[in-house]
Amino acid sequence: MSDHTRNDAAASRRLIYGRRRGRKLSPTRETRMAGWLPRVSFQLPAPGTALDPASLFGAPMREYWVEVGFGDGGHLFALAERHPEIGFIGVEPYEHGVAKLVTRIAERMEQGGADNIRILIDDARLLLKALPKNSVQRGFVLFPDPWPKKRHQWRRIVNAETLADWAGLIPSGGELRLATDVPDYQRWMLRHVLAEPRFVWTAERSVDWLRRPDDWPASKYEQKAIAAGRTPHYYRLRRI
């Protein structure tokens, strides 16, 4: 099967790779998941039906940001804490990561915090297809699975098709942020980014991609990568 054929298949049906479940959840997290996940999660509409992000939230939001593969939710939650006026949509298939974020949301909302996060447990590619044009002001794909074997690289979530989808979702002046600590994926990302004419890479000096910006919260995975001696690269892309 060619890479093009595989990408077409990924766009037309649910394809979720990697682990979805690990060890059993603790009783506390199981309780949180049972009580709170239905309140903060959503399902994709039928194929061909647009998903209005405003319909996911009980109150109007100034704009909407989307994170694909949020891991344990640390980065997403930190941003949501800083920006209660923004609606955040996070996509993650791994149960333990979802449970950690749901627990944080529950604790915050029980203390009167903002209700500005919604979770999708599904194929992120389908979400990118379902959202309306120009509906997402900022997107994030941070430290995705690198799929290092060449025969698996077509599974990478950063590719020509998904970048084209992001370019349709993000209006002029909006931003897409990417990060990886894997050298081969760094080269892969840049090759595909530079081939998408609707995005411009904002870096002017090496420090611009080697140092995480102040408004970019650290993630647990990033901290582990640095502790292991790997060098993350941070890419900020502006929609033109």
Question: Would you write up a description of this structure?
Answer:
The protein is an alpha/beta fold. The chain is 38% helix and 15% strand. It has 9 helices and 7 strands. It has helices spanning 3-12, 27-40, 74-82, 95-110, 124-130, 160-169, 183-194, 207-210, 220-227; strands spanning 63-68, 86-91, 117-120, 138-142, 175-180, 199-201, 233-239. It has a 7-stranded mixed beta sheet, with helices on both faces. Helix 2 (27-40) packs across helix 4 (95-110). Mean pLDDT is 91; it is low at 1-12.
- Taking pLDDT < 50 over at least 5 consecutive residues as the criterion, the unreliable ranges are 1-12
Please state the structural category: alpha/beta
Q: How much helicity do the residues have? A: 25-40%
Rg (CA only): 17 Å
> What number is the mean pLDDT?
91
Beta-strand segment tally: 7
β-strand percent reads 15-25%
Shape: globular
Question: What is the H-and-E element order?
Answer: HHEHEHEHEHEHEHHE
Strand order, biggest sheet?
Answer: 3-2-1-4-5-7-6
**Annotation field: number of helices:** 9
Largest sheet: 7 strands, mixed
How far do the termini sit from each other?
A: 34 Å
